[in-house]
Amino acid sequence: MNRSMAAMCVVLAVWAFSRPATAHHSFAAEYDRNKPVTLTGPVTKVEWTNPHVYFHIAVKDSAGATTTWAIEGGAPNTLYRAGWRRESIKVGDVLTVHGHLARDGTNLANMRTAILADGREVLGGQQDGGPSVPKRPGR
């Protein structure tokens, strides 16, 4: 190998290893499969980005207080294959999300399925290995 080729390899290696790594977490590290949750509310924000899509919904509790929840879905490509499109959810759409709570107690949930504003129930794109979300009566 000549010097210029060796120098090119060194430059490429330095560049590849100096870039920030995007850490990918396991489901079990961040979410509790024993704590299923169902959340319903209007979308307040959509982040259709890699490595996971996030959207935020405003959920009212039994006392009428509103809390914003972050919902983590799968990768955009995975959601696309599950029937989602970038325009599937818009700010103001009311969604119902079935998922699992974050272990750290924050208002964060991992989405297993969602019922979109048009009534379609779609998969959330996550592979958690957890139990299936029970079907609603009549489905």
**If helices are DSSP runs of H or I spanning 4 or more residues, what is the number of helices?**
3
Residue-averaged pLDDT: 80
As residue ranges, the low-confidence spans are: 14-23, 129-139
- What is the helix content? 10-25%
Largest beta sheet, briefly? 5 strands, mixed, barrel
Number of strands: 6
Please state the CA-atom Rg, rounded to the nearest Å.
19 Å
* Secondary-structure-derived class: alpha+beta
Q: Going across the major beta sheet, what is the strand order?
A: 1-2-3-5-4
- Sheet-strand content, in percent, reads 35-45%
Instruction: Report the span from N to C terminus.
Output: 65 Å
Specify the overall morphology. globular
Oligomer state of the chains in this structure: single chain
The H-and-E topology, N to C, reads as HHEEEHEEE
